[in-house]
Amino acid sequence: MTSAYEELVGILTRLHDAPADLIRSEATLGALDVDSLTTVEISIRIERDLGVTVGDDELQPDLTLGEIAALIDARRATTV
Amino acid sequence: MSFSPPQYPPPYGPGYPPPRPAQGSPLKVVFVLVSVLLLVVALVVNGLLFFGTLFAGDSCGTSAGTQRFCDGSGWESVAMYGLATAAGLIASRVAARVLLIGADTYSTIVDPLDRANAVVFGDGAGAVVLRAGHPDEPGAVGHFDLGSDGAHEDLIMVAAGGSRWPYADGGEPTPAQRHFAMRGREVYRHAVTRMAASARTTLQRGGRKTDDVDHFVPHQANLRILHSVADDLGLPRERCVANVDSVGNTGAASIPLALADAAARGRIRPGDRLLLTAFGGGLTWGSCLLTWPSLATHPQSERTTP
């Protein structure tokens, strides 16, 4: 089974051209230069593709990819 | 009992005409109005010439019977609604041919210092001639989907635009209220979800699948929105027609200009199956299916943008 982190990276790489070596679990959205509309798009795709709701207002620049993946897992656990 | 016609002109009471705002001399108002009018005329003429090469002579065909016509883009979806109206006029035999013009002059409502919007929007105009035709001829227009949600009118608006801010309601609006305003993040989310849903509904009504679409021509709002909708529909991004990079978001002219651009480049050919999807202020949205008409097209001789 694909982990939430891998799914998140899959979504991000389809939207954003950040170098692959910078996409790490501890990288923040701000460090990856993810802008506000991309944040909205990530939120839409998490809902559309992964079936859990993570609002774009929750995806703050200081949040790491690992933390977002943990958020997705936590939401999944509460929705199942 | 005899009928007495109402008095004409009607007996206006005290307080008519209503007082005009003190700011701005009448001459200035007239000058601004004339300037705006000239600009619109220039743009429309420009747009007509632009589309004249594309729709020379016969125009996009539409059939009278069960088929309808479409084009469009709230502001941005106005052309889509206009197209549905024009198609209805033809289908009901009220009109044999309809000239439909989509034009927007964002430069008159966008604050040039508002970086978020000023760099996104452009002025533009496009036109199309509609006529009665057959469902199986190139140019036939298929099914429509039109929708709106007035609960979100404040997401894209000019607060003191049109008749929304009558003088009688108190005072002169501020410059900010006279300018175009958009809540980008919320608009983005609505645009992506509404456009994808509208496109799906239209395909379903037409008995078509995503694979049946040769070209997806969305309202040119933002490349990321276009790609997001295409991805959601399962359409390869290559089938998404985009010229937002060269002309920006031109509102009601957006889809017509994208079509003209793609046709001039030879990317769209007669008989190709198109899905058009618009989204804009209101909120409003709409989609339609059509096949590209057989028209004498001429390559664009000169681009005015890089």
Automatic annotation (TrEMBL), chain A:
Residue ranges occupied by any Carrier domain in the UniProt entry: 1-76
Pfam families assigned to the protein according to its UniProt record, in alphabetical order: PP-binding (PF00550)
Coiled-coil residue windows: none
Protein name (Swiss-Prot/TrEMBL): Acyl carrier protein
